Amino acid sequence: MDYLSILLYTYLALLCAIIIVILCNSYYFKYIYVYFKKDIKIEKSDKLNRYVVLIPARNESKVIRNILNSLKNQTYNKDMFDVYVITQDENDPTNKIVGEYGYHYFLRTNLKNRARKGYALQECYEYLVQNNIQFDSVVIFDADNILSPEYLTELNNLKNMGYQVGVGLRESSNANTNFISATSALLFTFQSTFINKCRSIIYKKIMISGTGYFMDKQVIDEAGGRIWTGLTEDVQLTRYCYRNGVKMGYNPNAIYYDEQPTDLKTLHNQHVRWVWGFMGKDMLDLGVNKKPKYKKTPLLGRWEFFFSINLFQLSEWCVVFHMLTIIVFIIYFLVIGAYQNIAIYAPFILVDIILMFFICSVACFIEMLFSGKNFKVSRKLKIMSVLFGFIFWTDWLLAWLDGFFNSKKRKTWVSIEHKGGNNNIKTNK
Listing from the earlier edge strand, what are the strands of the sheet with 165-172? Predict the structure, then answer.
């Protein structure tokens, strides 16, 4: 048997797999055209809507003042929004701080098997409805968020344009700390400046990632309440909007900041939750409800949404499976004593590692290219983000494996401590 020919065929198969992945994402060429040729036009409006701001904030006393100060500094009419900070311990110092600002804190009581952000939001929303608190939309923030002074005003402009869900430009408060925070920030900046911009123009859709968004009360009530409670409730919500044709918009004039992990352990814990949250029971649901509540989302839009989450990971998995094929052959050669073939095959494991490094570096370079001036880190960290993007993207694969072999990790929300770093913020000072 010509084992060298077999090796060649495995690389041809790998090349074909990667080409298929690229073809499945060929819609990006349309996105590139839209990115350079079209701008989002936001119409200003004097109509004021009433909002309720919800902030899940378990043990967040170190950072909660940042978001509360941001809300106090909003240019939007202060009489047209209320703030509820959600905690789960009467002794949490966060409660006292919230009181100092004249806002409300909501103390959770139903915690058994419900220690997730989605359940916290659900429980507080039910409280608002039961107590007949009047509002038009809810706005969701995390305790580590910091807002530009016009944030609520700009979201209100989106709502008055007919959007039922809307979000602003997501930047990072501590991206300039190290290559871990920078690489993580790069992904979300790219998602805002490229993905959300193009989606909102073409399909009237966006990717809800974390917080910073408003959602009409009518949409929530017609869904049966705040039903999105998974590990990645933001992805669940986005899928719901796609399936039911909810009109979603992006406003680059509304800027909010959040904190990125600065160490590999925290980054990995995030990735485990995200990877297994993405793999919910509705992950493969590319169909539209037979009777969507609003308007059907085009098939290409739903296709794009699915592959945008899985693009780089699919490319990585192709290389991983190829590497495993080589390892299986090496083990086989050891068993049959064909040691001369091991010398031929073994170096190609290094080739696959280099290929993986190349894919990850290209991914980070593309993200940086389309993030432009919004990716605000030093030149050194920009270079490191490309060179060490391999670590960031490979950790998604490790997170999948970690969750696969540790079922508790893929079901449990791991608390992440925020430190309140803000070395990237130039506004709202």
Answer: 104-107, 81-87, 51-56, 137-140, 213-216, 165-172, 248-258, 146-147
Q: Which amino acid, one-letter code, is at 273?
A: R
Give the distance from CA 293 to its chain's centroid.
25
State pLDDT tens for residues 41-54: 999 999 999 999 99
Return the closest-CA partner of residue 244 out of 263, 264, 218, 266.
218
Q: Give the domain extent around 108.
A: 1-429
Better pLDDT: 328 or 218: 218
Chain centroid to CA 312: how far?
A: 14
pTM of the entire predicted model: 0.88
What residues contact 244, with CB distance under 8 A and at least 6 apart?
Answer: 223, 289, 292, 293, 294
Reading the block at residue 331, the tokens are 């083990």
One-letter amino acid identity for 382?
K
As for how many domains the chain has, the answer is: 1
For every residue of 234-245, DSSP letters joined together read HHHHHHHHHHHT
Query: Cα(374)–Cα(362) distance, rounded to whole angstroms?
Result: 19
Tokens of residue 275, six digits: 């990877």
360: Cα separation from own chain's centroid:
18
Which CATH number do you get for residue 73? 3.90.550.10
The 3-class secondary structure across 93-137, one letter per residue, is HHHHHHHHCCCEEEECCCCCCCCCHHHHHHHHHHHHHHCCCCCCE
Helices (H), 263-388: 264-278, 299-336, 339-345, 347-371, 379-387
